[in-house]
Amino acid sequence: IQAKPASFRLDGGNSSYTYNIEYGCFYNCTNLKKVIFEDGNTPITFYNPSNDDNHQPSAFHTIFYGCPIEELYLGRDFANYSYGFENLATLKNVKIGSCVKSLSWGFLGGTGVTKIVVPDNVTDISGAFRGCTALEELYIGNGVTKFDNNTIDGCENLKHVCIGNSLESIILY
Prior knowledge:
Elements: E1 7-10, E2 19-22, E3 34-37, E4 44-47, E5 71-74, E6 93-96, E7 115-118, E8 137-140, E9 146-148, H1 149-152, E10 160-163, E11 169-171
Parallel strand pairs: 1-3, 2-4, 3-5, 5-6, 7-8, 8-10, 9-11
């Protein structure tokens, strides 16, 4: 990575290993505006290398702390919770690619995202938009079969939800 990158791109790949993004590797990278995880089947893990040899996450939620990220392209699943984007108020534009099957719990919480489109290939969104206080529009594709309170808990500005036709259960309380 360059000293002051304006964007970060993780190239696609179908290998059997996990891409590991180390805790703090982008800390206060003040020029980083765009992050691209290209389409691929290889999952991404945010981890703290000092935690243990199994790459178990601890404080990975600060991976992009201090980065004014505005755009995210998510083209692959995360192997663990993806709090790397949580509380990035500058993040406004998120696109989800065709290889993503699930969205992690609260992965966009506290961001500036106002509209999100979940494509048909995504089947699990449990808790994904928890804490998305800026979210106003949510479009959920045909792959999702379950929708519950955890999915949109804290989405106080949500005005429009469109759910695909494969929904089997709605649990709201």
